[in-house]
User: What shape does this take?
Amino acid sequence: MLHTLRLLFVITFFGFQAQAYPLFKWVDPVRKLHNQIDLNTLVYFEEVRAGVFTPMGSVNWDASDLKEMPAEWVDPFYFQLRGKDYFSIRGTGHVYTWEKATRTMKRLDRTFFRGYNFISTQFVRRDTLFSFGGYGFWNIHATASFYDFKKGEWDLVNYKNEGPQRITFDLSGYDAKRDKFVAIEVNKNFEHDYTGQSSVFEFDFNLHQWTLLGYLDNSKLMKMGVNPEKAKWLNGYFLFNDGPDPVIVDPFKNEFWAYKGSNKFLISRNKETYLLQDTVVCHRFLSTSSDSIRVEFDKTTMDLLFKDSELIGPMYSKPKWFSQFIWQDWTLLGLLILGVFCAFRYRKVSNKMDGGIALQGLSVIELSFFQLFQKHGLDYCLSTNDLNQLIGCDKKSVENQKQIRNRFVLALNQSIKEHFGVEECIVRKTSEQDKRFMLYCLSEGGKRVISQMQKSKLI
Assistant: This one.
């Protein structure tokens, strides 16, 4: 972990400077071997057998996009959608499409804000790319976002309740069969805790909420000879194999298995392990007497791993009912207080009727938002700070501000759509003065809505 922190420190300060790049590497899902691009020479290679690569030709890649690539550590997430190959580069926000026939890498996103989701967990759910957690700006966080292919932007995932505070790819993953995301909460700023407990959470995409499953005893894993801070996610299971005796845990069935088989490929720390369909594939990188690297390739199935494993007991201890009751009590009380506060602060405007137009439940803040355009003109745009102050979240953390702004815009756009039939009344635009910042403006449809509201004396 300390090595990872030092590495990320280098990335944060020097990663985007022009210098020698590492290899851009991914796994071919058909051949179960690697493909890679040398970013220095822009040559594409395919692995013909374990550890042996053959050059296939030059790659077409825009030089301006390459300049924004981290120079010390490139961590691509490869995925397929509707028969096409894509990449998402952690820590950059970059999303590319890869055309193998022409060896062309084409950038799709319009990301300017980057550096917040190194070591994040990225996955595809129902044709949508998600990114949960990560490291950036000296903090591990649990921010969840999804990529909007139409807008070419990343947007926030909304939660109904609080979940884990910190998520990294070492201790989290998505299970497509159950449509659930599981995260073992990591310690703050890479602090080691080998004897304490780690909270285990599950996110339900249909309910948009987190559930605390229980508490993982880190000392139990230490006694089994594995590092509790490093695991491989194998589509529904955690494989802790950073140690001599691998451990498999099932967060959904709450089971803890100790591997007792003779398949030694799981034991070596210097390896790459991943799951393709039902096949567990492993590459072991072994040093030889001549200081060269020898690569061994092996594979098995989850069924065989469990066949050679012994059930030890539960993975985590479940929360006490009394603790849950108290937690729910405080949550309900907090929601009640918040509701009373909102009722006074955001007084609802009486229904106003004019012909076929009915504007129901528009709050004072929402009216104030539209009145700004009445005052400054329809081409006026609010900065991020302007909007933060208007909706009263300027004193909150940066991540909370993002979520509150996002919810405000979504709710207001939905209200306008219901009453006026206009899609996306408020649109976000990149500031021409500073590409890192967003402006909140009226769309053409939004401008028509303001005109209608003025004629109807709704504002």
